[in-house]
Amino acid sequence: KLHSDLDKGVGTVKYTLSGDGAGTVFTIDETTGDIHAIRSLDREEKPFYTLRAQAVDVDTKKPLEPESEFIIKVQDINDNEPKFLDGPYVASVPEMSPVGAYVLQVKATDADDPTYGNSARVVYSILQGQPYFSIDPKTGVIRTALPNMDREVKEQYQVLIQAKDMGGQLGGLAGTTTVNITLTDVNDNPPRFPKSIFHLKVPESSHVGSAIGRIRAVDPDSGKNAEIEYNIVPGDGGNLFDITTDEYTQEGVIKLKKPLDFETKKAYTFKVEASNLHLDHRFHSVGPFKDTATVKINVLDMDEPPVFSKPMYTMEVYEDTPVGTIIGAVTAQDLDAGSSSVRYFIDWKNDVDSYFTIDATEGTIATNELLDRESTAQYNFSIIASKVSNPLLTSKVNVIINVLDVNEFPPEISVPYETSVCENAKPGQVIQTITAADKDLSPAGQRFSFKLSSEASNKPNFTVHDYRNNTAGIETRRNGYSRRQQELYFLPVVIEDSSYPVQSSTNTLTIRVCRCDSDGTIQSCNVEAIFLPVGLSTGALIAILLCIVILLVIVVLYVALRRQKKKDTLMTSKEDIRDNVIHYDDEGGGEEDTQAFDIGALRNPKVIEDNKIRRDIKPDTLRFPRHRPPAEDNTDIRDFINQRLQENDVDPSAPPYDSLATYAYEGNGSVAESLSSIDSLTTEADQDYDYLSDWGPRFKILADMFGEEESYNPDKVT
Q: What Gene Ontology terms describe what this protein does at the molecular function level (predicted)?
C-alpha cells in the first residue's frame, strides 16, 4: 500500500505505478494506493521486481511528491522436487571388493531457495539395490554393502536412488534416478580341465610341426584374466611333442616335434599343465592357479614310403676314373610291418645326371662317363627310392659327388712376355717378373716354384729369383751386354707345382738385347720376346729349320720337273685332237675367214671321225656363213664359257701356251640328242625352224632367234 502525507482522503491525489511488471504482474489502485498481484508469481522465474510509485494532483496532473522506488521480493515455497541432471548413471566396481568400496557419487539439484526453510535441503536413499549397496544420505556416495560379490555369480546390478527435499520429512518432494553397476573381473578363478585324461589318435605319417590335437582348460574369468598358458610336464614321450595356446579360443594345440614311427613305439603318455598368465596376489591364498591333465596318444600305422639311412649323401671320386667304377651306395628301407623290397633310380632332370648310373636293387652308384674336374668339380642330383609293393610311395634323397683333382697338368707361364735387357744393364737388375698358372684346380690353392734349368744355371748371363708367392723375377748376372756379340738369349725356366705327383715344365724365355739411354729407356729393340715350346734346345730348333728348308727345295724341284715333262708331252703328242695355233705372219681375212683353222675341234669328236672334211680344199659349193644377230638372252652361254675358261686358267696340268679347248661337247647319254646346229651334218641353210613356233611358249625364245636368222640368210637374197 502506498500513501502520501498530502492525501486528505478527499480524492484529490492520484497514485501511479511504473517499473518491472507494472500493469502486467502488479496493478495499483489510483485512489487508495493499494498494490495487487494480477497473476501468480514464480520465484524460480523472477525472485524480485523493482517498481517506482508517484502521487500526482488529480486536477493539475503535477507531482505532489518526488518519485519513490521500492522492491517487491517473491517469497519461496516448496514447489520444486529434486532432480538428477546427470542420470541415469553407469558405474563399475571390481568383484570381491570389501564392504564400503567406493562405487559412484550421485547429485540431485532442487530449484527452491536454499536460504529459506528446508525446501532445498535434499536427502538421498536407496529404494532398490539393497543389501548389495549403500548410499550416504547427505553426499550421495554409493558404496558396496556386502563383501565378496562374485562376478561369476552375478555381474550386473541396477540400483534405484531417491533424493527428497524438506530434509526427508513428510510432505517433501522427491526425485529418483537409476544407477547400473557392473562387477569387473579379477583373476580369482584358476583354470580347470573338464576331464583328467585326453585321448588322441595320430597317424604315423603326420608331418613334423603339424597340429595333431587340441585340449582345453576352462577359466570362468574373462579378458586377460582368462588367458591360459599350456606346458608339457617333462616325462614319457613329452620330448616328441609341443603345445601352444590358441589366442582366440584359449585351447592348447599339440604339435609334433619329431617324426612318429608305429613300428618303434605305438603309444605315448604325458601330462599337460594349464596356468594363468596374469596372477593377482590378493588371491594366492585361494590355491595354485593351475591344473594338470594327462594326454594319451595312440600312433596309427600307415603305409609309408621307404626311409633313407641318411638325409644326404656325399661321395668323392677321382677324375678320369674308369667307366663303371662304383663310387658309393645309398640305402633305403621299408619300416612298415610288412617289409617290402626297395627299388632305386636317378631323378633325371638334365644331361648332367647321365654321368652316373645306379643299381636298381643294391643302390650302388657307378660312373657312366669319364669325369673331368677342370670341367665340372661337383655333381648334385637326386635318387628316388620306391616300394615294390606300392610304387607310388617314394622318397627322395640328395647326392653330392665331389670330383677329386689328379695332378695331371704342369704349371706354365700364364701370359706371353716381351722381355728385353739393356746393353748397359747392371748385375742384379730385374728385367722381367713372371707368373704361372695351372689347369689343375687345387682346393687349397697351388704353390709354384721357379728355377733355372740345370744347363742354364752354369751360364753367367741371367738368373731366376723365386719370390715364394707364385711369381719370380728374371735378374741379370753380368755387367753389360753387347748386341754385336749376341742379340738373343734363350733362358729356360723350370716351374714346379706343389701337388702330388709333382708336375713341372720348362718354358724358354727369349730375351732381346736392346740399346737404351742412360736412364734405361729402350731406344731400339724390334724383336718380341716369345716362349718356345717346352723342352726344345737351340740345336733342335736349328735342325728343325734345316729340315723344313730341305723339304721346300725338294717340293719346288719336283713341281718344276713335272711341269716341264707335261710341256714336252703336249708339244710332241700326235693324239691330241686340239689344233695348235701357228703364226704365219700374214693378216687374216676378218671374222668371215674360217679357213685359217679347223673348227672341227669344237665339235663332237665322233662327228669329226664320221665327217672328215678337208678344210684346205675348196668345196664344190661355196656357201656364205649365216650372220646371226646377237641373242638378247645369252647370259647362260657367256657364264658357261667363262666358267670353263677359268677352270683351264687355274688347271696346273694345262700347257703354258695357247691352245683350243672344246666347250660345245655334249655327252653321249642324252636320248634327246642335240638341238645345236654345230653337231649337225647338214648346213644351216638346209634347216627349217618354223616348227619351233608350234612347240609352245617354252620354245618361243628359240623360235624368235632362229626365225630372225632365216631373215638374214644370204642364200635367200635375190
A: beta-catenin binding; cadherin binding; calcium ion binding
Question: What whole-number distance in Å separates Cα of residue 121 and Cα of residue 76?
Answer: 13
Euclidean distance between CA atoms 262 and 622, whole angstroms: 122
Could you give the count of Cα atoms lying within 13 Å of 471 in the half-sphere of its Cβ?
7
Instruction: Determine contact, residues 79/41, Cβ cutoff 8 Å.
Output: no
Max distance between CA atoms of the chain, in angstroms, equals 203
- Domains of the chain are 15-73 (2.60.40.60), 83-184 (2.60.40.60), 197-300 (2.60.40.60), 307-404 (2.60.40.60), 412-524 (2.60.40.60)
93 bridge partner residues: 183
What is the 8-class DSSP label of residue 22? Answer: B
pLDDT tens digit string along 391-422? Answer: 888 899 999 999 887 777 888 888 888 888 89
Rounded CA separation 123/206 (Å)? 73
pLDDT in tens, 198-208: 999 999 888 99
Provide the 3-class DSSP secondary structure of residue 611: coil
Residues sharing a CB contact under 8 Å with residue 574, sequence separation 6 or more, in sequence order: none
The C-alpha cell of 587 is what? 693378216
Tell me the three state secondary structure of residue 703.
helix
Which long-range contacts (C-beta less than 8 Å, at least 24 apart) are formed by 684-693? 684/626, 684/709, 685/623, 685/626, 685/713, 685/715
Residue carrying C-alpha cell 511504473:
18
Query: What is the per-residue pLDDT across 529-571, written as a single tens digit (0 to 9) for each?
Result: 334 444 456 778 888 999 999 999 999 999 988 888 766 655 5
Alpha carbons within 13 A on the beta-carbon side of 476: 19
Report helix, strand and coil shares of the chain as percent, to nearest 5: 15, 35, 50
Q: Rounded CA gap, 510 and 430, in Å?
A: 15
Burial annotation 607-635 (CB, 10 A radius, 16+ → b, else e): eeeeeeeeeeeeeeeeeeebeeeeeeeee
Collapsing DSSP states into helix, strand and coil, what is residue 33? coil
Dump pLDDT digits (tens) for 216-253. Answer: 999 888 888 888 999 998 876 678 899 999 989 989 99
* Helix count and strand count (H, E) for the chain: 4, 38
- Residues 6+ positions from 422 with CB-CB distance below 8 Å: 481, 513, 514, 515, 516, 520, 522
Sequence-distant (6+) residues with CB within 8 A of 183 are 92, 93, 94, 95, 149, 150, 151, 154, 155, 156, 157
What 8-state DSSP symbol labels residue 6? T
Written as nine digits, the cell of 92 is: 563399475
Give the residue among 279, 152, 170 at the shortest CA–CA distance from 227. 279
Q: Which residues contact 589 (CB under 8 A, 6 or more apart)?
A: 595, 596
Residue 664 neighbours by CB under 8 Å, 6+ apart: 602, 603, 676, 678, 679
Q: How far is CA 194 from CA 197, 199, 216, 298, in A?
A: 9, 13, 8, 21
Which residue, among 276, 237, 278, has the nearest Cα to 254 in the 3D structure? 237
